[in-house]
Amino acid sequence: MAQKNLIIVESPAKAKTLSKFLGPGYSVKSTFGHIRDLPKKGLGVDKEHGFKPTYEIGIDKQKVVNELKKTARGAVVWLASDGDREGEAIAWHVSQALKLRPQVTKRIVFHEITKPALSAAMDHPRAVDMDLVNAQQARRILDRLVGYELSPMLWKKIQPGLSAGRVQSVAVRLIVEREREIQGFKTKGQFKITADFMAGGHKLPAELKEKLPALKVAEEFLNKANGSTFRVNGIQTKAGKRNPSAPFTTSTLQQEAARQLRFSVKQTMTLAQRLYENGHITYMRTDSTNLSELAISEAERYILKNYGARYSDPKRYKTSVRSAQEAHEAIRPTGFARTVAGADEQQRKLYQLIWRRALASQMSPANLQNTELTIAMSDFQIPFIAKGEILNFDGYLKVWGGAKDDVVLPPIKSGQKLKLLAMTALETFTKPLARYSEATLVKKLEELGIGRPSTYAPTINTVQSRGYVEKKDLEGSLRQVQSITNKSGKISMHTQELLVGADRGKLVPTPLAEMTTDFLMKHFTDIVDYDFTARAESDLDKIADGHLTWQQMIKKFYAGLEPLLARSAKVSRAETVPLRELGTDPATKKPIFARYGRFGPFLQRGEAKPKKDQDTLNKPVFAPMPPSTTLDNVTLEQALPMFKLPRGVGQTEIGEPISADIGRFGPFLKINSEFISIKGRDPMIINETQAREIIKEHRDKKAKQTIRDFGDIRVLKGRYGPYVTNGVKNARVPTGQEPANLSLEQCRELLKNAAGSRKRPRRRSKA
Q1: Which residues of the chain have pLDDT under 50?
Q2: How far apart are CA 344 and CA 207, in angstroms?
Q3: One domain for residues 414 and 371
Q4: Rounded CA separation 250/284 (Å)
Q5: What's the whole-number average pLDDT of the chain?
Q6: What is the pLDDT of residues 551-600, one digit of tens each?
Q7: Are 484 and 219 in contact (CB under 8 A)?
Q8: Residues catalogued as catalytic
Q9: Cβ distance 78 to 41 under 8 Å?
């Protein structure tokens, strides 16, 4: 009887794809991700005994482990998790949890889920690489120490529920510093000069090589043009070429998918994971730009067959960054003949992007002819420049796209005189560096050597979910712009409004991010130091190479962290949380402050008094921040009306009182115990008619969601199916149970057996 073979992978989709390539003697099972980890509660690291970690099998993984143990009995076990540090750690944890014997356990690695790759891996099994495992252990322990030691400090000094992280705190610092650069940037106006000339019956557009500093200077220049002559002073023509980019790494894929497809980093990685697990692309977490010789040969055959020899130019790219992922290939299709792949439209778009980039990397450069004319103006030293570009051979652009239309200059000779048709001076403004998008933040982190492919998406997701960063579409603002035109010798001046500062998908820090960054910069400099964080990545690489033990690295790190924790514990919350006095309330003669509290920024009228002071007249009064203001820019005039909230708006059609207010989640209407969001509207000016319309619309929508209404208990239609609620707890309606037929007693029973929900914090308390 043939011996059983059990292949263990981390993903059920990967297991399903591998099963297609194997015969009846093989069973493929999934761990559904990690099966062991540090405990969810407690540090889980013994600081007194060499930072030894304690690993636990999750409650949700007990059944998985038991099934794997049962299947593994008497079988040859093949550990086939991914080939990076994380995958190696999964393989090790599986071997430990299942108590596998090394002599019957084989570790195999492949970077694409195809039959040839699997066969090649099974022909060359190895043992679990403990250097890679130890590098992953070091990262996990390091991040646990930072998170569990530093986060409680943030809870005490700033706000409950915050988290600090070795990579996430640096990412937040980058975003905060960029925002402060933008806020401190002094815009400078200048004038761009463009002109249209006549050259042998053809119009020739050109631009002055330098911008002019002021309106008066620009006006004088356009006047001077009336008496000036213009002549072609030089013609420079040179051949140019545009080379294809290397195949995708993780970060370049994230950046290009954001630019071309507008995918978030998390979305890109999720889609790439699906494509990989279904055998369409190679492993998607990689720093490498290498392609295998097999892939280069296949790409060459495809290009020769479909485009011809002129388009073929096989290349071998070198990876500039040394990392544990360098042994991988770049991200590429598992077969170039498959031009379309993916289970849905988004997967297909991402696959096409990967296919085009990988194939284009093996194609010839695009050949161009660039021409630049220098046009001299009499009595003025700065020349005009006219540029032309002709694409002589498209090369890799045939696949990658992006070729611009030819800009053809008219036939012209050096020394030829030109006639001025029109000239325009348009006011422009200097701009600060742009805010980070998800993709440009990934690029910056990679440039600084911070984090690795597997960390970018979760880091960006964490800084947003923790309230440090908001991803916003910036509306911009209208700005008056001056322009001057010289047409047929006549000067005219115009003023127009242009929208400036509008942008999409930018990462903007919250006040919480600024406070946390300032606190960490002052008391935990190394944690948010760019070089320190990059050196930590380098040390992890040394551990992966076997040149450093993980205990040495963690011991050195913690020796620096421990005294910082002790010193920062003495810092008072008042030193950490900003308090800004805006002025005095004319009515009460009490000071008005803008400050930050446990649930965000708010306004305070009056000084805080000791707890023993029971004089309610002297207790401070609190109010919400005005919409679209921050602690730094809110004014006394904006703040004073907020103390009139909640504001009576009127009554509903049946006489219920309506009030308007602002809470943690924005402006809202309150009718008895019912809260209705009015996001985007001003609670200070909303009137009764508008409020009634909003209430009616809200209640109509709510009625459509209601299946049964017992007063305090209702059966509703939900996003994930029907459910029962009493306003505090929710309970799903069991499959097969008709929700419209539920009785009150059945609803109560469902709620009784449902897990309790977390209590939502109040919107706002007023003194």
Answers
A1: 1, 322-326, 757-767
A2: 47
A3: yes
A4: 6
A5: 89
A6: 999 999 988 888 888 888 877 777 777 788 899 999 899 999 988 776 77
A7: yes
A8: 283
A9: no
